[in-house]
Design a protein that fits this description.
Helices cover about 50% and strands about 20% of the residues. It is an alpha+beta fold and about 725 residues long. Among the domains are: about 1-75, Alpha-Beta Plaits (2-Layer Sandwich); about 80-215 and about 350-380 and about 670-725, no CATH class; about 225-310, Calcium-transporting ATPase, cytoplasmic transduction domain A; about 430-545, Calcium-transporting ATPase, cytoplasmic domain N, CATH 3.40.1110.10. Strands 5, 6, 7, 8, 9, 10 and 11 form a seven-stranded antiparallel sheet that branches. Strands 12-24-23-22-13-20-21 form a seven-stranded mixed sheet, with helices on both faces. The protein is elongated, with a radius of gyration of 35 Å.
């Protein structure tokens, strides 16, 4: 099975995207196709055919295949022709003046007024030809789509424009022949205005879509175009495309990291906020991972290139965001289906209105006007934008907060979450030993004593040594391991023991700090006695440290009636100590991966909507089984591959953001759908002339204006959501 993402040109509404998607899914060799209207891409899974076949399928339906979508640089920002639009605006104002100025008693333009019907009709005819040329792309698309039995918005516009033009052209020929009575049957201004307002509407929509696309392009800081390559003792400036895996690169103060890699030597602090959301500079030294695009504040490092091109973190981020906007939720698929049926139904209503009104004795002029107006006002542009625009905006907001969604259904599901299940080690905690509490009974300053301890521990292979970090290198002599007890070493001529409580009986030392020892025990710590020349000078509690703000986050979940569960493979005593600190009342400990997955299944079988948050291989089955699986960024690859959401900055607060964004996005989607349907429910009966007896009428010109405002309402509502979502959080 192969997969490709192709750029598609010529899509203007949801009927286009849903029609193309339906067509592709019917073709031989295509297993699955998704078409994204906002990003203008088609994601296709296929076998036994090749790319040329796929391009042929797309072209056969009247769309243009613009090549393979390769990443962030392929998100095209439309450069609408402002000059043409400005010129068209000047013309349309002139057309409105000469065609309707007499209604407002405005001064007549010499010879181009209703006293000279032939001259006025000729001018209007000339303008109509000009606007038909201006809207040629719309007319061409409308014809192609009706020929391929995929009628869309352009089809409605094409029919309404051509009907009004040729009907007016018939009247114009009669005026040329001297029958001035036909002047009242001219609708050249409607032809011009429908095309103009459709173009204006698309210009506004494209600006809004482009803002959305631009937000995706700005999700990450653009990586530098060049890198400093070290070859022997020589430094070479090379383009980013020349960098290969395992090349040794240099980053100096103020420079950007060129590619993902591992630090070989040197030390610096870097800004990784563009990918993690964390503004505090991160220290980097030998063995540290660096991410392309991060900025070095100070220092100098040499790093080995590990992930370049499509394998880089930035490329993966872009891929995740694009795929998430491409995968459609249930409500979006439903809206696409409705749009697919909507256009044929409107065509039927328009032609039936014309026929029935003619049969009922209404003049051909009025019947024709009603038919054309229906075709104009019913364009499903607002309906097509109602859902995908919000989905793209939502994914952009999530990505900026460090939440990368693998599929569009996450946003649909997150708003209904009622249970959140956390793994403990590496999720609620950092997953590595840290100093929990340090009691210093000596004359040394804390940092100096800790440095002595760190230098001795650096010689040990015990996992506990990872909790200590050397600040200044010291010479350690006579180091030895005391099995089951601890370690021994000499520093600056003094003897040191770093050991558990068994050392006390071995050295016949009495512990006078029992209260501190008990405190560390109660908090689940591994305890280290620091002994200098047979005197206890320190007591250190080491344990896995709870992540920042977790306690407050748990409180917010509880406050919002979301049940919190700890599900861990650790033993019960350790788990309950952590749970007690965090305010988690439900703890399930000592469970294997299969048992974790079974527990999640029990919850979902009982109709619970569950988020599972984990980081390890043992969490993968549970992540897959949950309603939404969330993996932290420093988790294992298999956990990240199994998750629906990756928490790039490891900040659990963003889980609250996800729920809030989900709730807000669906509120906006419902509002958009309401306005899109409400508009059509109100406008179509008016366009049919059902309220003519009450003096309420509509012409194609005003119908095109109303359609623009309908689309504009949906666009502005979606962008309003973008602004609000950046500030609103669960309390």
């Amino acid at each position: 099975m192969k997969k490709i993402v192709l750029k598609v040109g010529g899509m203007t509404c949801s009927a286009c995207s849903s029609g193309l998607e339906k067509y592709l899914n019917k073709q031989v060799g295509v297993k699955r196709a998704n078409v994204n209207l906002v990003l203008s891409i088609a994601t296709i899974e296929y076998e036994s055919i090749n790319r040329k076949d796929l391009e042929r399928y797309i072209k056969a339906v009247g769309f243009a295949c613009l090549g393979e979508f390769k990443g962030i640089d392929d998100i095209d920002i439309n450069k609408s022709d402002k000059t043409k639009l400005i010129f068209a605006t000047i013309l349309i104002l002139f057309i409105m003046y000469i065609s309707m100025g007499h209604m407002l008693n405005l001064p007549n333009i010499p010879f181009i007024n209703h006293d000279y019907p032939l001259i006025l009709a000729t001018v209007m005819f000339s303008f109509a030809i000009l606007f038909l040329w201006y809207g040629y792309d719309i007319l061409k698309s409308g014809v192609k789509n009706i020929l391929h039995k995929m009628p869309n918005m352009d089809t409605l516009v094409m029919l309404s424009v051509l009907f009004s033009f040729f009907y007016s052209f018939y009247g114009y020929i009669n005026i040329v022949l001297g029958v001035d009575e036909y002047f009242g049957s001219l609708y050249f201004e409607s032809t011009c205005m429908v095309i103009y307002f459709i173009k204006l509407g698309r210009f506004i929509e494209n600006i809004s879509k482009d803002k959305t696309k631009d937000a995706i392009k700005k999700l990450v800081t653009i990586t530098p175009r060049h890198a400093i390559l070290k070859v022997g003792d020589e430094e070479r400036y090379v383009s980013i495309d020349e960098v290969k895996k395992e090349d040794l690169l240099i980053c100096k103060s103020g420079d950007k990291i060129a590619v993902d890699g591992i630090v070989e030597s040197g030390k610096t602090y870097v800004d990784e906020s563009f990918i993690t959301g964390e503004s505090i500079p991160v220290p980097k030294e030998k063995g540290s991972k660096v991410i392309a695009g991060s900025i070095s504040y100070d220092g100098y490092i040499e790093y080995r290139a590990k992930r370049v091109g499509k394998e880089s973190t930035i490329s993966e981020v872009v891929k995740l965001v694009v795929e998430a906007t491409n995968n459609k939720s249930k409500i979006q698929r439903l809206t696409d289906r409705i749009s697919g049926y909507f256009v044929p139904i409107i065509l039927l209503i328009a032609f039936l209105t014309f026929l029935i009104q003619m049969l009922c004795g209404l003049s051909i002029e009025k019947s024709f006007t009603h038919m054309v107006t229906i075709l104009v006002v019913a364009c499903p542009c607002a309906l097509g934008l109602a859902v995908p625009l919000v989905i793209v905006v939502s994914n952009g907001i999530c990505a900026q907060k460090g939440l990368f969604l693998r599929n569009g259904e996450v946003l649909e599901k997150a708003r209904n979450i009622d249970t959140i299940v956390f793994d403990k080690t590496g999720t609620l905690t950092f997953g590595k030993l840290n100093i929990f509490k340090f009691f210093n009974y000596s004359q040394y300053k804390d940092k100096n004593l800790l440095n002595i301890i760190s230098n001795i521990e650096a010689n040990s292979s015990h996992p506990i040594q990872t909790a200590f970090h050397i600040s200044k290198k010291l010479e350690v002599n006579d180091f030895k391991t005391l099995n089951g007890i601890g370690i021994y070493g000499k520093v600056n001529g003094k003897e040191y023991y770093l050991a558990n409580d068994k050392i006390l009986s071995k050295l016949t030392i009495k512990d006078t700090n029992k209260k501190d020892y008990d405190y560390l025990t109660q908090n689940g710590c591994s305890i280290i006695y620091v002994i200098e020349d047979n005197v206890i000078i320190g007591l250190i509690g080491v344990r896995d440290i709870i992540r920042t703000n977790i306690k407050d986050i748990i409180r917010k979940f509880n406050k919002n009636d979301i049940e919190v569960v700890m599900l861990t493979g650790d033993h019960e005593i350790s788990a309950k100590i952590i749970a007690s600190e965090l305010g988690i009342t439900k703890v399930i400990a000592g469970v294997l991966p299969r048992a974790k997955a079974k527990y999640i299944k029990e919850l979902t079988d009982n109709e619970k909507k569950v988020i599972m948050v984990g980081d390890g291989i043992n969490d993968a089955p549970a992540l897959i089984g949950a309603t939404i699986g969330i993996s932290i960024n420093d988790g294992t690859d298999i956990a990240m591959d199994s998750a629906d959401v990756i928490l790039m900055n490891n900040d659990m607060t963003n889980i609250l953001d996800l729920i809030q964004i989900s709730k807000q996005s669906y509120k906006i989607i419902k509002q958009n759908l309401f306005w899109a349907f409400f508009y059509n429910v109100c406008m179509i009966p008016v366009a049919m002339g059902l309220f003519s007896n009450f003096g309420i009428n509509m012409t194609p010109m005003f119908g095109s204006i109303a359609m623009v405002f309908s689309s504009l309402t949906v666009v502005l509502n979606s962008l309003r959501f973008s602004k609000e979502s950046r500030n609103k959080k669960i309390k």
